[in-house]
Design a protein that fits this description.
192 residues, alpha+beta, four-stranded mixed beta sheet, 9% strand
């Protein structure tokens, strides 16, 4: 049996947010390894057109997320600026100290998908960092470090090499479970 469930996510994905909130509500975070990827990069590698760029898919996705959030009692507000560039925050996941990651992930997801905040505006990013007690200067320099840039690219490429094509994706015992609605299946595999 595997020691944890790999959870591939991007803050830009509302379904990643919904899955994250369910993981937290079930008090199972310790069973998951959060793997940041750049969803846009993953889509480019797979030559996939994201739902955000298809009017019909976008409309359905928005309604679907609202429906799921209501059913699961998850605070949710469709971000009016969707899709926003999550690049700096995803790099930030690789940069920050281990003891800051949980709070950082919580605050970033909630800023985007609960509080309707434009995470691409510098002033909002500064507030997120302050809320997480992360030094703004260290963060700003760190996300421009070539090693951090390369690591996010590497993680995204490794996800693609594993046949991952979207977020959220869960991997347990080398089996792929794609989508927030497959979390229970991933947990079943984990507990089998």
């Amino acid at each position: 049996m595997t020691k944890f469930i790999d959870f591939y996510f991007d803050f830009i994905s509302p379904y990643s947010y919904l899955a994250h909130k369910k993981i937290v509500s079930l008090n199972l975070r310790k069973n998951f390894k959060y793997n940041p990827i750049l969803l846009g990069g993953l889509h480019n590698l797979g030559k996939i057109t994201a739902p955000a760029f298809n009017e019909r898919k976008m409309k359905n996705m928005k309604n679907d997320c609202i429906l799921i959030a209501k059913k699961k009692k998850i605070p949710f507000k469709w971000n009016e600026k969707f899709p926003l560039n999550s690049l700096y925050l995803m790099r930030g996941c690789l940069l920050i100290k281990e003891n800051q990651k949980e709070k950082f992930i919580d605050v970033c997801f909630e800023s985007y998908w609960k509080d309707n905040i434009d995470i691409s505006i510098k002033e909002n990013l500064i507030k997120i960092l302050a809320n997480c007690k992360i030094d703004e200067d260290t963060f700003s320099k760190g996300i421009e470090d070539q090693r951090i840039k390369d690591e996010l690219k590497k993680l995204t490429n490794l996800a693609f090499d594993k046949d991952i094509f979207g977020a959220p994706t869960f991997v347990v015992n080398n089996k792929i479970f794609w989508g927030q609605d497959r979390l229970d299946y991933a947990l079943d595999e984990y507990n089998s």
